[in-house]
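Working notes for the structural subgroup meeting. M.R. asked for a predicted model of this chain before we commit to crystallization trials. I am recording the input and output together here so anyone reviewing the notebook later can reproduce the run.

Input as submitted:
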Amino acid sequence: MSTAHCRRLLDAYRAACDRPTSVLVLGGGRDFFSNGIHLGVIEAAADPAGESWANINAMDDLVEAVLTTTDRLVISALGGNAAAGGAVLALAADEDRGVPSASPRWRSSTRPWRSPPGRA
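Returned structure, recorded in token form:
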């Protein structure tokens, strides 16, 4: 995801957190969840180092928002691969759910260090 993508997703995530929901689901495409930062955008930038730093910080801000959400359950729905920052984003959720038909290596897990509301 580019810096702009990360910022738009963070804005959408915050808007979803402002709604009366008890569960948020983060989902990616059918073939992949996310590969993290967008290397193509970074390489094409006038200042690749600056764009890289901005992209990393935008991804970090998104991951932090997910990690610090304590008033509702957050689930990552993985329909395929996740790598780098995308894997970290998926792991930031309370739970991740693989889609069995999308990957032979399907798995699901719950984060033991996070207790969603009403569950201790």
